């Protein structure tokens, strides 16, 4: 099980690394476009901002050759860390199959059917990525989608992991795991909200108050004697 931060913002990655429970980061072309006009150069900075764990990069080439060239350039920046995300399409799957044969870790992303999860496994991908909240907005059952991926992959021995993405609330994060996701990725704001609960905060205030009261009892009365 791993929790990743979904962002291409350097400050987000630095903050996520400091949380202590985030194991890596995911990016996509939309997130990259908000930050830079040179995705590969920016990705190098992201690797430095979050110096450990898997780092997901998605090339944008229109052809298999262009995808492969950009993927290899990204992977060369940190071969032991970089995971190449490829779209769950015919070209994406073919590119993934060839890259994994060369030792590059890949993930098939934007997958919306159990058949695509099976293709991810057969092409050697380490992850398949369903979009939970986006599926819900398309009037699909995003959590049922995660469960169907997990069920299909369980028959193959689970060598391909389900990485649930497009998670917009803490409930979606935990529900994705309950429905079989092996890993999850979410924006920094969602990750920061995971450890937070009103009852927990209230309990901490009660503990602090009780200790403060006890400490006050131990303070000697300076007016005595």
Short description:
Helix content is 51%, strand content 16%. With 225 residues, it is of the alpha/beta class. An 8-stranded parallel barrel has the order 1-2-3-4-5-6-7-8, surrounded by 6 helices.
Structure description:
The chain is of the alpha/beta class and 225 residues long. It has one domain (2-218): Aldolase class I (TIM Barrel). Helix content is 51%, strand content 16%. It has 11 helices and 8 strands. An 8-stranded parallel barrel has the order 1-2-3-4-5-6-7-8, surrounded by 6 helices. Strand 4, helix 5 and strand 5 form a beta-alpha-beta unit. The protein is globular and about 80 Å long. The model has no long low-confidence stretch (mean pLDDT 94).
Total beta strands = 8
Number of helices: 11
Mean pLDDT metric = 94
Fraction in beta strands = 15-25%
List the uncertain runs.
Answer: none
What global shape is seen?
Answer: globular
Structural class: alpha/beta
Q: How widely separated are the two ends?
A: 63 Å
Q: Helix proportion of residues, in percent?
A: 40-55%
Tell me the domain tally. 1
Output the helix-strand order.
EHEHHEHEHEHEHHEHEHH
Radius of gyration: 22 Å
């Amino acid at each position: 099980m791993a929790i990743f931060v979904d962002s291409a913002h350097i400050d987000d990655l630095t903050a996520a690394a400091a949380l202590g429970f985030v194991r890596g980061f995911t990016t996509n072309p939309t997130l990259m476009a908000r930050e830079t006009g040179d995705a590969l150069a920016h990705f190098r900075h992201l690797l430095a901002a979050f110096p450990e764990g898997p780092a997901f990069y998605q090339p944008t080439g229109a052809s298999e050759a262009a995808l492969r060239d950009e993927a290899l350039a990204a992977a060369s920046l940190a071969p032991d860390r970089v995971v190449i995300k490829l779209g769950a399409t015919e070209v994406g799957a073919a590119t993934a199959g060839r890259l994994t044969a060369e030792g590059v870790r890949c993930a098939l992303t934007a997958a919306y059917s159990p058949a695509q999860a099976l293709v991810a496994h057969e092409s050697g991908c380490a992850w398949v990525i369903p979009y939970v909240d986006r599926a819900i907005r398309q009037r699909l059952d995003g959590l049922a989608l995660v469960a169907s991926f997990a069920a299909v992959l369980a028959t193959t021995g689970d060598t391909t992991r389900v990485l649930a993405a497009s998670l917009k609330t803490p409930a979606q994060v935990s529900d994705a795991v309950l429905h079989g996701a092996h890993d999850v990725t979410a924006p920094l704001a969602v990750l920061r909200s995971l450890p937070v609960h009103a009852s927990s905060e209230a309990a901490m205030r009660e503990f602090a108050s009780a200790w403060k009261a006890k400490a006050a009892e131990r303070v000697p009365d300076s007016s005595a004697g």
